[in-house]
Known about the structure:
Organism (chains A, B): Streptomyces brasiliensis
Mean pLDDT of chain A: 92
InterPro entries (chains A, B): Homeodomain-like_sf, HTH-type_TetR-like_transc_reg, HTH_TetR, Tet_transcr_reg_TetR-rel_C_sf
Strand content of chain A: under 5%
CATH architecture of the largest domain in chain A: Orthogonal Bundle
Shape of chain A: elongated
Number of strands of chain A: 0
Number of domains of chain A: 2
Structural class of chain A: mainly alpha
Order of helices and strands of chain A: HHHHHHHHH
Radius of gyration of chain A: 18 Å
CATH class of the largest domain in chain A: Mainly Alpha
Protein name (chains A, B): TetR family transcriptional regulator
Oligomer: homodimer
Pfam families (chains A, B): TetR_N (PF00440)
Largest sheet of chain A: none
Largest interface: A-B, 48 and 49 residues
CATH superfamily of the largest domain in chain A: Tetracycline Repressor, domain 2
Keywords (chains A, B): DNA-binding, Transcription, Transcription regulation
Amino acid sequence: MALDPDHVLRSAAALLTRKSTATMDEVAKAAGISRATLHRHFAGRDALVRALESLGIEECEAALDAARLDEGPAGEAVHRLVREIEPAAGLLAFLYTENQLFEGEEQNQGWTRIDERIAALFRRGQAAGEFRIDLTPAWLTEALYGLLASGAWAVSEGRVAPKDFTHMIVELLLGGALRRQEP
Amino acid sequence: MALDPDHVLRSAAALLTRKSTATMDEVAKAAGISRATLHRHFAGRDALVRALESLGIEECEAALDAARLDEGPAGEAVHRLVREIEPAAGLLAFLYTENQLFEGEEQNQGWTRIDERIAALFRRGQAAGEFRIDLTPAWLTEALYGLLASGAWAVSEGRVAPKDFTHMIVELLLGGALRRQEP
DNA sequence: ACCAAATGAGACGTCGATGTCTCATCACGG
DNA sequence: CCGTGATGAGACATCGACGTCTCATTTGGT
């Protein structure tokens, strides 16, 4: 009976985040279904990865919407963004390292849109004098992705407590490691 | 005649950083040798990856030595470290995402040593009152890896100028994105 | 010039993953 | 109670990558 395709994608994301070379059979077992059923829902491994990519884009855009990036101080908007995107961080980390997605020049336009929205947030912060201007928005965007991936990986390895995920990323991204005397 | 194995490893690292699923044949072509010769130097794909891992560890430790992590302010030591490690960043980025290396519990002890040396640097900075103490040394270490990988990736994609690599990483890691009025 | 070693090209066989197929079983609705 | 549809289990062929091998050619040293 109509199996929940979303559940399959979640399981696949969780597994592939840990083992990006997992077999279709392993993906199926992880989702608690048979390989045949997995193939009935997703034409092949490529289709599965594409579906994961679409899911990742959806969740990213949902997080971007929920974070209301154009409201209030940019720093607080970054904080909201990381908090909203945290549940999808594992999936993002997988997609981030799946450079196969970008081999063809046909880079999914969804990512371009997301990149642009995040970069716009950093630009806004710079224009407001809130963020420093010697770090380009493109780099800050890239660094955010990298820290999200590192954070997801560190949590799954037990090196960082899950509850500290957002704090660690936001504080490092915005405040850096140096100690300061003020707020 | 004695082909330069180091050159092969460099080529392989450069290729695998961009396309982690590259074939042995592609690796050989990238190095300008035949697949047969590649097999004569490295027993198999696994051996090749292991050799890359050893090379990465060597370069990391060389960078750690050259950066003299226990001299002067910790912040400056971090700066030296990133500068020294920059040439190896691409290789590091590849190894960082090659989670296959850590599937077996048999995590290469070299990484443990490197992790510990970097974490010790952050601990030293914290003890000296130079770094904030709400970000754990383990997380700062992980974040450094993530930023190095993001930086290498951003440079190879043309989103960041190569000459800005060290500055972008060090400034973000130490100072964060927020603008400050001091030093 | 000669010899030894290394290389390149290519031909295999092997193996694992994939994709497709069939058939038995099970769940749910009429 | 029966029938339709989805699922699970497994067989099967295909395909790509791998690893090994041979043989001709080239390179470098003597």
